[in-house]
Amino acid sequence: MLQSKAFMKKTRRGQVVKVVREHYLRDDISCGAIFCQSCEKESACLSSSAPNILIVDTNVTLHHIDLLENNAIDDVVILSVVLEEVKNRNLSVYNRIRALCSNPMRRFFVFANEHHKDTFVKTMPGESPNDRNDRAIRSASLWYQKHLGQGPPILLLTNDIENKRKALQEGICTETVQSYVESLGRPELFDLVAQVCDSSLAEMDIEDSRPSKKKLIYPEHRPMSEITSGLQQRIFHQGKLRVNRYNPIEAYVNSESIDEEIIIYGRINMNRAFEGDVVAVELLPEDQWKEGNTLKLIEDEEDEVEEKVGLAPDSVDAAPTSLQAKPGDFGSKIGSRTCGRVVGIIKRNWHSYCGSLEPMPMPAGVGGAVNALFVASDRRIPKIRIQTRQLGNLLDKRILVAVDSWDISLRYPLGHYVKTIGDIGDRATESEVLMIENDINNRPFSEQVLACLPPLPWSVSQDDLKCNYREDIRHIRVFSVDPPGMYQIREANQMIEEFMLAANISVAEKILKHYPLCALLRRHPIPTPKMLEPLIRTAAAVGVKLDITSSKSLADSLDNALGNNDPYFNKLIRILATRCMTQAVYFSSGELTPPEYYHYGLAAALYTHFTSPIRRYADVIVHRLLAAALGLFKLPAVFHDKVQLNSLADNLNFRHRNAQMASRASVELHTLIYFRNRPTDAEARIVKIRSNGFIVFVPKFGIEGPVYLTPKAKDNNGEESCKNSADWIVDEEQQRISTRDGKRVYMVLDVVHVHIEVIEPQPNRSKLVLTLLK
Amino acid sequence: MTEHEHAASVGEDVELEAFRRLYPLEFLEKFLKDGVRPDGRPLGRARSTLISVGSLPHAEGSAMVKLGNTTMLAGVKLEVMTPSVDFPDEGRIVVDFQMPAICSPHVRPGRQSELEPVVSEQIRNALSSSMMVDLRELNIAPGKAAWMAYLDVYCLDSDGSLLDAALLATAAALADLKLPEVAVTDDGKVLPASSDVQEHRSLKNIQSKRLKLGKIPMALTCAVHPKYILPDPTAEEEAILKTTITVLTDFSGQLFSLYKPGGEVLASTSTVQDCFALAKYRGKELQKIFNNAVIDAEADDAMVED
Amino acid sequence: MALEFISPEGLRLDGRRPAEIRQLRANLGVIDKADGSATFEMGNTKVIAAVYGPHEVQNRSQQLLDQALVKCEYSMANFSTGDRRRKQKGDRRSVEISLVIRQSMEAAIMTHLLPRTQIDIFVHVLQADGGTRSACINAASLALADAGIPMRDIVASCASGYLNNTPLLDLNYLEDSGGGPDVTIALLPKLDKITLLQMDAKLPLEMFEKVFELGNKGCVAIANYMRNVLLENTKDLAFARGVVKV
């Protein structure tokens, strides 16, 4: 039987065209039951001894994949309509469900309902794609019910009320995931069930539990139609929400429709948006932009901003404090920046997060479900409320938690426990945490990927030797030298580096010449005077004048900054200079104008990565471009697709940044472990003066953190007490802090001695602390 | 039929065929005298007419028309265009009539038949004088985007009255045309309706629709013999009589234009009036066939969607 | 992510299994004025072919004394593809396909029986959805048979390819654009002779054998279908002429 599918598609030329595809319906598709009398059984796996044969709908698959992955769930039919929807909505869940279906240890069967003549359904006039797919799921369930009459009962799992109602009407057995899991009588599975807002939970966070007085913490999100028209009229602005890594109650949205970055202060204005969500933002009235202290009014103690001791930053991107204005910092004028609030979430970026439960006393009684608060290691993520029946097991563990929903009446989002990674503080556990946190995939390569490689053992074949674009250079002595980090100005003085740079630059020139619109290059933006301001101010305070007109002049003036009898002075200034700059990034040449291609750090007009294709994906891309430029291979199609090429460059930058973050986090982890039983005194340099102390850099260990001159305390109002700090006078211009009597004076770049130790203010929450040695 | 009878009938066939070739006019007149045409129809009738729409799923609108053996296949492909400054809210319809080599032994490959541009032009005139389609119907975003409808009519079998069949196919394809649901950005970029709101700011969806049609034009070609008027002539009749008059009206009989491209017989006023009367009759007949075909198509709409 | 042309369940995007042909449809005698004609559909690919002749050679200088002159012209309707075609008649691809069709047909027509005559084969693509070359050859073959031109055998054609490590029969447009190799075969099934073999993209030899074998099987299946169509048509004709009594 033949059906046809018609839809519209955009062509490469930018035209919208009608596409028609054939859709064949078959009568030879197996049901997958081992006990079936009529179907082919080669891939059958559904067993006759199963209590139920489960059919799951799309949302159940998407939201309860953690549950499905548990061994307790088996004999599941995955419909092709569900797979297709899951694939479109979340590729990672799709890969997980595919892995389940191909796992011989599990009994998950894919039923191609969309190509089965008895289960295919046509869209009815006016029917939405969602309704049509729900109907397809019911049609398949009904078919199974009839087809496997004498086998285990078929059970459709859906949490969609309307779908459930219709299913019951049509005579299909159906249950929600919650009630099904309850019926299994296995409490450990409960933790895995995704949480939707229910009233019993809501009461936990609200003061007045009378239903009529239900307190709404967050404003409602606007309906999608209003958002769409608001975006069109430019009342709303669309962009990705980026939460400040060092101050999670502050976020930024960059939108095409407005030049400035929009700042979102506070959780109410962030209105339940997560890091990475695509949101619609409304600007606040301009008079509210100036309310620098709104922060304190909206937020409560739990979101306090605290600086930690960590690895010294190596660029602006990694620096917590140098650029972003912060309340309580000098010279921060919130009023001068555009503020807004989130009115709707266009696309969620929810996934699983690593972290641990907030310490809490064990409740009386055993076995009951307990509400606990989960704190993600990534500070940008709000606390997540989960339900667990294994609190005792989880309190000292790093766990993975997935978010499910966030109701306007709940301060925190709801989520569910996914899995335990290991004990808090354990080296292996914490290492895995930071891999997960930075989205670094350390799973083995998939079969598909490995299939791209020739079978092992591999040796050079006759064909390889005959190949006209390869040359046998085995008779030449070849060695390789790993290139050192390329981010520091004027570090490339050695010959190998020079060769490498020359190779990279000449390849960049070649590919740009052949492909002016799609060459993958690397640029290092020229730091703006504003970015270099803290450096100049610091240098001026110690009597050094820096010329920032070009990278050359800056390098020269850095060479001349020698300090008086201070061998470390020059190095310190250089370190401070580096961290004023942003990192170099990959980009496609068609996206920018030639002056923007400039690599500031290397003082090169053009640059790319070419020399290390076995370590960096960017080099592989550049190799392909070069091969095409030399006429050896055809240019792959991706280079003609602007959108795809840009997302490739974005992804390279994203992965690169994540890898650096992970590597920094790993060093920090090992630093913490090192100092755990080893309190140490060391020499440190002041790099920044603060109102209540200063930031020091410890060259020996490469760490940096605050040293408080006045004890941090809170008065009755929860406001940080500033009484003591009044005893200290801060001179911003001179970058110095001194006591009123002038007996103690600290200046930027001064040498101080600090004590480094690990304290544990709360169980399982150890941290590094620096104190000044008198 | 016995073997003998069969052989005899084959023999008659051959004789008839020879007469037809050697004395075509006499052959024709012999029929006309008896009040029938060589293909067996009454004098004043058109051939059986078949319209089926939507036969080309790839095209946004399509129709196949059979007028006796004459076969036309029309398809509409849409493209997005920037409207002209003078008519910022209007799209365009570009009609092209083509006779590929398959359609007739007289069309030589690689050489354009002179009929192609003539019929194309006649269809264009008929569309504009009938105002069948208000070009504003093709508007997407005023001044920024509109639909350009390329309407290609292919003659697959050429057996007379080509304009009649081609115009009917044109009208039916336009009636079948469905403008797809699309989304437009404020700067007038047109995208598939399923496009992600997330990737593009400020998308406005424009519903799928059929065109509102005004008066539908039709043509009736009549071959003129000093004594008879033959509506909807076959290629053979056209070749024998050499004189034709083509009347363009709408289904209700309102006259748009007349063609009489030369020929031996000079048409009197009464001849023209007779042709006009035949066209009026034909209009009623066609209207029914046309409406049935298009209504069928609309009923199918729901089923084709996916 | 690369398109998954075959699901792990072994179904192609349109629901076929790897070795299945699309739905076939053919009609004979569709053009009254032609000496022979046929439409041939392979799924959404639809072509129409007409044969005029044998007739006198139009250009005397081309006349062949010992055999018939076979001419072929291939064209495409503007609305036959998703994106409207803009190419003019006689572009390189059309010329190439015209040649391919003519050469495939010449191998089957007993041209020596019709000296000093001309046979015109015209093929027009109404809808293109992959495999147009094969559909054209099949349509032309049926049109020649319909015209009663003496032939050694019918010519049946089918394409096969290789995607996601699987040989696939009768690629549609989407699969054809998948970047894999594409082998078009035309076969004289009774004689078991290949008259046409075209392949683009590289393919290791052992893979080629599998793909080729699959394409060959496709041709045999299509030839059987064509034979049935011709048989049914002959029965109908015989009935209409009164040769066969009911």
TrEMBL record, chain A:
Gene Ontology biological-process entries: nuclear mRNA surveillance of mRNA 3'-end processing; rRNA catabolic process; rRNA processing
Keywords of the record: Exonuclease, Exosome, Hydrolase, Magnesium, Nuclease, Nucleus, RNA-binding, rRNA processing
Cofactor or coenzyme needed: Mg(2+)
PROSITE patterns per the UniProt record, alphabetical: RIBONUCLEASE_II (PS01175)
Domain RNB: residue ranges: 394-632
Gene3D superfamilies according to UniProt: 2.40.50.690, 2.40.50.700, 5'-nuclease, Nucleic acid-binding proteins
Subcellular location as annotated: Nucleus
Gene Ontology MF terms in the entry: 3'-5'-RNA exonuclease activity; endonuclease activity; RNA binding
The keyword Glycoprotein appears for this protein: no
PIN domain span: 52-165
Pfam families: OB_Dis3, PIN_4, RNB, Rrp44_CSD1, Rrp44_S1
GO cellular component term, pick one: nuclear exosome (RNase complex)
Record's keyword annotation contains Metal-binding: no
PANTHER family hit by this protein: EXOSOME COMPLEX EXONUCLEASE RRP44, RIBONUCLEASE
Family: Belongs to the RNR ribonuclease family.
Protein name, per record: Exosome complex exonuclease RRP44 homolog A
Organism, as annotated: Ceratopteris richardii
TrEMBL record, chain B:
GO CC annotation terms, alphabetical: cytoplasmic exosome (RNase complex); nuclear exosome (RNase complex); nucleolus
Keywords: Cytoplasm, Exosome, Nucleus, RNA-binding, rRNA processing
Keyword RNA-binding: yes
GO molecular function: mRNA 3'-UTR AU-rich region binding
Superkingdom of source: Eukaryota
GO biological process: exonucleolytic trimming to generate mature 3'-end of 5.8S rRNA from tricistronic rRNA transcript (SSU-rRNA, 5.8S rRNA, LSU-rRNA); nuclear mRNA surveillance; nuclear polyadenylation-dependent rRNA catabolic process; rRNA catabolic process; TRAMP-dependent tRNA surveillance pathway; U1 snRNA 3'-end processing; U4 snRNA 3'-end processing; U5 snRNA 3'-end processing
Alphabetical list of InterPro entries matching this protein: ExoRNase_PH_dom1, ExoRNase_PH_dom2, ExoRNase_PH_dom2_sf, Exosome_comp_Rrp42_subfam, PNPase/RNase_PH_dom_sf, Ribosomal_Su5_D2-typ_SF, Rrp43
Location of the Exoribonuclease phosphorolytic domain: 47-180, 216-280
Subcellular location: Cytoplasm; Nucleus, Nucleolus
Principal cellular location given in the protein's record: cytoplasm
Family in the record: Belongs to the RNase PH family.
Name of the protein: Ribosomal RNA-processing protein 43
UniProt source species: Ceratopteris richardii (Triangle waterfern)
UniProtKB/TrEMBL annotation, chain C:
Subcellular location: Cytoplasm; Nucleus, Nucleolus
InterPro entries: ExoRNase_PH_dom1, ExoRNase_PH_dom2, ExoRNase_PH_dom2_sf, PNPase/RNase_PH_dom_sf, Ribosomal_Su5_D2-typ_SF, RNase_PH
The keyword Translocase belongs to this UniProt entry's keyword annotation: no
Name listed for the protein in its UniProt record: Uncharacterized protein
Record domain Exoribonuclease phosphorolytic: where: 20-150, 153-217
GO molecular-function terms, A-Z: RNA binding
Highest taxon of the lineage: Eukaryota
Any one Gene Ontology BP term: rRNA catabolic process
Family designation: Belongs to the RNase PH family.
Pfam families in alphabetical order: RNase_PH, RNase_PH_C
Organism for this UniProt entry: Ceratopteris richardii (Triangle waterfern)
Keywords: Cytoplasm, Exosome
CDD domains in the cross-refs: RNase_PH_RRP41
GO cellular-component term (any): cytoplasmic exosome (RNase complex)
